[in-house]
Amino acid sequence: MNILLIHQHFNTPETGGPVRSWYLATALARKGHQVVVITASAGPYRKEVAIDGIRVIYLPISYNNRFSFNARAWAFARFAWSASRAASRFRQFDICYAISVPLTVGLCAMYLKWRYRIPYWFEVGDLWPDAPIELGYIRNPILKWATLFLERSIYRNAIGVVALSVPIMEAIKRKVPGLRLALVPNMADCDFYTPEQEPGNPGEFTISYSGALGAANGLGYLLDCAASCLRSRLPVKFVICGDGAMLDILKKRAEFNQLTNVSFAGFLNRDGVRDVLRRSQAVIVSYHPSPILETGCPNKYFDGLAAGKIIIVNFGGWVREEIESGRCGFYVDPRSPEHLVQKVKEVLASPEKQAGMQREARRIAEEKYTRRALSETFVRLFEEPG
Questions:
Q1: Residue 23 burial (CB < 10 Å; 0-12/13-18/19+)?
Q2: pLDDT given at position 385
Q3: Which of 13, 57, 100, 281 has the fewest CB within 10 Å, making it most exposed?
Q4: pTM over 0.70, yes/no
Q5: What is the per-residue pLDDT across 207-247, written as a single tens digit (0 to 9) for each?
Q6: How many CA atoms lie within 13 Å of 185's alpha carbon, on the beta-carbon side?
C-alpha cells in the first residue's frame, strides 16, 4: 500500500523531540508499505531524504516553541497550504495519515480527499481547539466557532480517528457520535530504554524533566520544589532538558534564587535523553493545572516507564490514576512544593519502596505500551478492512 503521512513536527531519533510519527512510519515500512512523509523544517530549502526505509519531504517552514500564538498560527497555515501542494505529486496514493497538532493539518487531508479522492485517518494527540480555548489563547467568539466547526468537519470526513488516550477518545465520541475510533497511545521503547542506573553520589536522588518548556508545562513548580528541597537539606537534584518559551525565564529565576540543585541540559536527542534517564531515579511530568491538559498522552511518561523510573505527576487524570494503581510513582500537589519533599523523603527512607516503584514502571511499559505491540496495532488499521 502507498501511504502518505503528513505531520508538521516529524522528528527522528537523531534530531530529538517526540518520535512517535517516526515509530509509526518505520513500522509501516517494515511491513512492506511505501511511506512518504511530508513535514516541515527550519532549513532555507525544500529537501527530500531517505530515512529508515521511508521517504521524507522537508518543507522550509520554521516553527519554534518560543513563537507567539500568532506566529504559530501563521506557521500552521503555511504548512497546510504547502503540504497540500507537495502532496499533489502523490495523487495516486492509497491513503493518507494526518497527525495533529496542529489541527490545520486536517485541512490538507480534507483537500486530498476532495481533490484526489485519497481517504485519510486523522490522529489526535491533544484536544484542539479545546486546549487553546480553555487556556485562553482563543477568545474571539467567531474564531472559536470556526475552529470547532473545522474540528468536526475533519472528523466527519475521515475514515476514522486515532486517539492517543481514552479521555481523548471519549471527548471525540461526544462531539461526533458514531465515528470510527481507534486507540493507539504513545509507545514505550523497551528495546532502546532499559532500567539501567549509573552510579552516582550515595543517597542522592535525581528527578529529571525532558520535554517542552512552555507556559502550559507549569515548570515554575519544579523551581519551587527545588527551593523547598534546599531548605529541607534534602539531597535532591533536578535536571531540566528541553527548550521553549519559558527557558530563559526559568534559568534567570534559578540563578536569582541560587538553586544549586537545578541544572539545565538543553535540547537533547534520544541518546541524550537516555543518558539523563540513566542518571535519574525519577522523572516528573508537569502541567499547568487545567482539566484539558489531563487528557493528553505525554511522551516523557512513556520514556520514564520504559527506563524503569519512578513517575511523579502534578496533575490529575488518567496518568495519575495509572501510576497510583500501578504503584510506579506518586502525585504531588502543584500548589505545594512541600508535598514533593514529603513524598521524596518517604522514598529515600525505603530503598525497597524505591526499587519496587521502578520495577512496576518497567512492568507497565512491557505489559501495556511496548513499541512492538502498539506498532502492530497501528499497522492493522491499514491492513484490515474497516
A1: middle
A2: 64
A3: 13
A4: yes
A5: 999 999 999 999 999 999 999 999 999 999 999 999 999 99
A6: 22
State the cell numbers at 128. 484542539
Cell digits for 323?
Answer: 501510576
Element (H, E) at 84: helix 69-87
In this structure, what C-alpha cell is assigned to residue 200? Answer: 552516582
Chain centroid, CA 35 distance in Å: 22
Report the distance separating Cα 382 and Cα 173, nearest Å.
21
Cα 229–Cα 233–Cα 238 angle in degrees, nearest 5: 40
Tell me the pairing of strands 54-60 and 47-51. antiparallel
For residue 116, report the phi and psi dihedrals to the nearest 5 degrees.
Answer: -120, 5
Condensed to tens digits (0 to 9), the pLDDT of residues 164-199 reads: 999 999 999 999 999 999 999 999 999 999 998 877
What letter would DSSP give residue 101? S
User: Is residue 40 within 8 Å of 132, Cβ to Cβ?
Assistant: no
CA distance 18 to 189: 12
Question: What number of other Cβ atoms are within 10 A of residue 226's Cβ?
Answer: 24
The burial class, CB within 10 Å (0-12 / 13-18 / 19+), for 348 is: middle
DSSP string, 328-349: SEEE--TT-HHHHHHHHHHHHT
CB of 264 closer than 8 Å to CB of 240: yes
Integer Cα distance of 126 and 123 in angstroms = 9
Domains defined along the chain, listed by start: 2-186+370-383 (3.40.50.2000), 205-368 (3.40.50.2000)
Q: How far is Cα 249 from Cα 142, in angstroms, rounded to an integer?
A: 33
